[in-house]
Every structure is written in structure tokens, then in C-alpha cells.
Amino acid sequence: MIDRRLFAIAKKKTLILQVVIRCISLGLSLYIWRILTFLLSNLIEGIHLKLSLPFSLILLALLGKLFLIRLSAHLTDQASAELRVALRTKVMEKAFRLGNTSRQLPATTLAQLSGDGIEQLEMYYAHFLPQLFYCLVASLLLFGYLVSLAWQPAVAMLICVPFIPLTIMMVMKIAKRILSKYWDQYTNLGTRFHESLSALSVLKAYDQDEAKQQELAADAQKFRKATMSLLSMQLNSITIMDIFSYSGAALGMGLALIAFQHQQLTIYGVLIFILVSAEFFLPMRQLGSLFHVAMNGISSCGKIFDYLALPEKSDGTIRSWHESLQTITVDQLDFTYENQQPPAIQQVSMHLEKGTFTAFVGKSGSGKSTFAQLLLNQLDDYQGTIRWNQTDLTELSRSVILNKGILVNTKDFLYGESIRENLRLANPTLSDEELWHLLDRVKLTAFVEQLPERLDTVLEENGKNLSGGQRQRLILARALAASAELYLFDEITSGVDIESEEIILDTLKTLAKTTIVIFVSHRLYNVLNADQVYVFKDGAIVESGTPRELEQTSDYFNAYFTEENQQMKGAVGHE
């Protein structure tokens, strides 16, 4: 019921204060009951008292309870906010540390985990746990007071109290079978909904939107039934807890009346038992009403901490590296994705130098993109060595690598902010003059100048108000703003027009004069001006050389261009 990992992140002080405040509030309630009992017992015995002082004390106690209730609500909000911020910080830091690795969760699952998952855990921590600890203390406090009046009814009520948490525990064991699939169903439903929303244009094009809608509706219905089953179980457990609560209170009252009949208890004592019996079981009854919160919180707690416990790449010890990156040497590199065979990279060796334009080519799945990620130490557990100059890549810290090298691909994102803000994401210190220079390098100056807001023009999410070529050139301009020493461009000319493709390639050739540029592509005509070309197949380098050399000797080059010529002739003949 309690995950100790939670207390390593959350502040225990706020939780303890909540329990203390509730105990003080309980003490004030008991004080009010004592005054009322005192007045009633004297009234029954025919003793007349002045009521001004007792009622003044009751009013003060009620005001005190009101203040404590508001203070407890404030502390609950504070505990929620502290845990929410702490956990979301931990999750986001973990997400950035894992990066684009095989252990990373899908974006939709991660969003649900850091959103609804933490909300559920927050309710569990801020509401259920304080009530749980308060129940334990309150039961002992009330028992300690009542047992001083008559031990038999006090012990009888105390014996009934454990049946409530036992009921909760029994129901939780049954509910775990539901909850084990509950969160997975929820995240899977969110993932499928996001996928369908993202692919709405495709579904419309193939007239499959209604079929997908029906499929999602069926999944949502299954999830609704699972939720209703959980709530039904909670309501049934509350009924059982009510039986124990009311039975325990009735038993305590009955035994108190018997004790009074045998003159073992005064009128004051029996009235206290009658008034306090309900209060005796109320904290545990309230705990039972939070059962659903607890179960959802426990389920999401496990998911969140399992994610935070995922193994990460060990960060290098070198955090300050002022060398200029001149060479990259790769020796006998092997890499296999987790639980996958065959290896993605096999026995790859190469030497890259500053001032060169290197191209990786090969069919989809040949390993070229994986190798590009390895050059930036983005994947785990490779065998062999990668050296930047004479330094092993694993010795460099993440911050050093990010400062020196950058990977640009078609997945790069443009935020729904101004062009200026998107460019300054790579370098916040850039002036407007420098931003215009970047746009000029990718031939976007004329386009941006004709926009009404120029650099202040706000883009739609991921640059939807740009053409494919304009979007890729703006992403390239942002990469240039980083002033890195190693650039890896993975299929960035995919899906762009011929004009933009030529502009991008010309920009890369110019950039390669002062940096190490690696261009990953499956299109051979994009790499004919490269200084060196490596051909990947099944994770290995099968051919390498200059484009001219490979045109003469490479089977891959010859087969590719033969296929291209046949496609072009077929297209002309069709026309």
C-alpha cells in the first residue's frame, strides 16, 4: 500500500503536518463533545449551569476547527504541488537523459505518464496517505480516552476497527487483477487515439475514418467497463466497511449502556460513548472512500518509478573539452539493439577528418542511421571504439558531445512560435543581423522578407504553414546557428522539392569546408559531390571510396543507376 520510493522524492514534512493538524482537529472535536456531554449530564441530573461560558468555548473550538480545516486544505494543495513539480521534473530529466534510445517510452505514453499518471499519484500522496496515518493515530487517541471511562466497550470498538483495513486489503488483492491491465489499457487507448488523429488525412484518403472510429469506440467501451468494474468494487467495499463501522459503533453503545445499567459508568460516560462512537470509526470510513484514489495512485506509482529506474548511459567524466574536433576514428564497431538479432552494426571501421564531406548510403535498414547515432554516443552498449581526436567518446560528458556535434533529421520539430524564437533555440544570443545571415545561407531571406511580420511571423505547429522544402531549410538554418563542429544530416532532403534539395546540398558542401559533415541518404545522386562515400549493407560497410571510384567499381552504384535509368525510361514511355 505504501511505496517507499515515493518518500525519497516527496517532502515528508508536509505529510506529517497534515496528520498533526488532523489530530489537533480531532482533539477539538473531542473537547466539544465533552462540553456538550457535561451540559447534557447536568441537565439530566437537574443541575442548572450558566450556558454563556460553555457555548463560548464551543464557538472558539469550532472556529479553531474551521481554521485547521482550511490549513489542512492548504497543506494538501501544497503537498500536491510539491509532488507534482518534483515528479514531473524527475520524469522530464529522465526523458532527456534517455533521449532517443531503445528504452525510451513512446511520446503518447510518456505524456500520459507525466500527466494523468502523476495526477493520480498526487491524489494518492496528498489525500490517501495522510488519511491512512491519521487513522492509525486517531484510533489510538480515541481508544486511550474511552478506555479510561470503561474498558469493555472501548476494547470492543477497537477490535472492530481492523476489519475495515482488512476489507480494504482483501478488495485490493482482487482489484490488482483489474489494475494490472487498467493502466495499460488507458495508455494504449491514448496511443491509438493519437495515432488516428495524426493519420486522419490518411484515413480520410482511404475512406477508413469511420472504421477506425468504430474501433476506437470499441476500445473506449472496454476501458469504460474496466473503470466501472473498479468503481463497483469500491462501492461494494464501502458497503462492507459501513457494516463494520455501524456494527462497531452499535456494539460500543450497547456495552456502554450495559455498563451504565450495572453502575460501572456514569451518565457523562455513557453519553460520551454515544456521541464519540461514530467519530471513532469515521477516520477509517473516510479512508475506505479513498480506495479508488489509492488503487489508481499505487498503479501509476509503480509505472512512474519503473520508468525512473530504467538503466541509463553512463555519462563521461570529461566535462570540459576545449579541443577542436579534427578527426573521428572508428575501430571494429559492433552494436545490437536490445532483444533484437542480427546485429545492427557489424565490424565497422572508418576515419573522418575536419573539412570533409562524407556520405553514408544504403537501403533502408542497412544500419547507416544507427551508425550516425553511435557517432554521437546516443545508443547504449556498443563494442569497439569511437575516438574524437585521441579521446574515447565514452569519456566525454553528454554536455560536451551536445556542444560539439548535432544530428539533424526529418523528425526535427519546429515550435508554434516565431521564426526568430525557433532559430534562437540553438543559440539564444544571436542578433537579428546574424539570423538574417543564417536565412541567407539557406536561401530563405526573400521568403521571410515578404512575410508581414518577417522574423516575428509565428509558425504553426511543426511548421505546417511552410512547404516541405522551406521547413527543412529552416531546420537546417537552426542547426547552423548551433555552430557545431560535427554535423550529421539524416535524410534531410527526403520529401523536398528539387530546388530546396539543391540549396540544402550546396549549403552542406560549404559547411563541410570548416567542419566534419556526414550526410546519410539512400539516394546516390545526392552524394556524387561527396569527398568519401561509405556503402552500408546489413550493418556492415561493403564498399567505400570517392563517388568517381565507386561509379567505376561499385556493384551497388551500378545497380542503383541502372534501376534509376529504367524507371526514367519507363516514365517517358508512359507519357
Automatic annotation (TrEMBL):
SUPFAM superfamilies the UniProt entry points to: ABC transporter transmembrane region (SSF90123), P-loop containing nucleoside triphosphate hydrolases (SSF52540)
PROSITE patterns: ABC_TM1F (PS50929), ABC_TRANSPORTER_1 (PS00211), ABC_TRANSPORTER_2 (PS50893)
Primary localisation category: membrane
Transmembrane spans: 20-41, 47-68, 128-148, 154-172, 238-259, 265-282
InterPro entries registered for this protein in UniProt: AAA+_ATPase (IPR003593), ABC1_TM_dom (IPR011527), ABC1_TM_sf (IPR036640), ABC_transporter-like_ATP-bd (IPR003439), ABC_transporter-like_CS (IPR017871), P-loop_NTPase (IPR027417), Type_1_exporter (IPR039421)
UniProt domain ABC transmembrane type-1: residue ranges: 15-296
Keywords (A to Z) from UniProt: ATP-binding, Cell membrane, Membrane, Nucleotide-binding, Transmembrane, Transmembrane helix, Transport
Pfam family of the protein (one): ABC_membrane
Compartmental location: Cell membrane
Domain ABC transporter: from-to ranges: 328-563
Membrane topology: Multi-pass membrane protein
Protein name: ABC transporter ATP-binding protein/permease
Organism of derivation: Enterococcus malodoratus ATCC 43197
Organism lineage string: Bacteria, Bacillati, Bacillota, Bacilli, Lactobacillales
